[in-house]
Amino acid sequence: MATTRTRAKNALKRRKRRLQRQLEEDLHSVLHEGCEASTKEALEAEYMANEENTQRVHAAWITANATADAAFAKRQRILAERQRLMESIKQQVEQEKMEIEAAEKERAEAMESLRLEREEADEKHRAQVLASMSPEKQREVVCAFYARTGTCRFGANCTRYHTPVTSSRFLLVQGMHAIQLAADDALEIDEKQLRRAYAEFYNDVLAEFLKFGFVVQLTTCCNLAPHLRGNVYVEYQTEAHAAAAVHALFGRFYAGKQLYPTLVPMDSWAQGICGLYQQRRCTRGRDCNYLHPFATPVEDTPSYRFRRRSSPHQV
User: Per the database entry, which stretches of residues form a coiled coil (predicted)?
Assistant: First the structure.
């Protein structure tokens, strides 16, 4: 009897537990369905909010882009207008500059033409006055240094008359020779080295001068006076050869120096070369106003067409 009652109690307990589980499952199912419904509604609401926000952002972007495009187009128009204005101003300035340069050039040409006419008239007048003078008076008026060497320490400021030269067999290239001298700036230079360097210079320039005609003699000054230092004198056989050399070499460069050869009013070397220097008795030394020439190099196998081999006194 007790066993039957126990079994009945156990069966009742099991039934209660089944009912409890069933009730819990039903409750869980109901709660789960409610949560899913609320979650779906929340997601739909969030999606709608995001969509509205996206549309607002897109509309704002379109508005900002249109504003930026309008501002860029306006800025481009301003830049184009400014560029056009600058080009117009630049063209106007260039035109004015060209007109000013043309006017200045015309004025300079007119002034140069007037200066040349005046100089020519002055030269003619001086020549006429000089021709009317006696030889003694001419010697007093004409610059003796210019007449003998083709140059003068006073240059254009000389108070004596520098006779213009239109034809001559002698030409002068001032400052063409630039070898350092032993007595210059207290530097000690070997005389043999100096002669060797001058021989190279001599052979180089002589070959160039021979292109224009028969060279009688080429002489270079070793004076330290500014108007004679480094001067190169060339004697041609004819005046035409000397004129051709002056025309061809004028404005050319040698050793970085621009050459301006000129004809000089010399008739012979005896006029320009210092006689006391040849006798080693010149008291003025290399500051003398007459020519102190370098020794003419003598080649073992002569290749230059000299009419005579006599050379000035050696240094």
Answer: 79-120
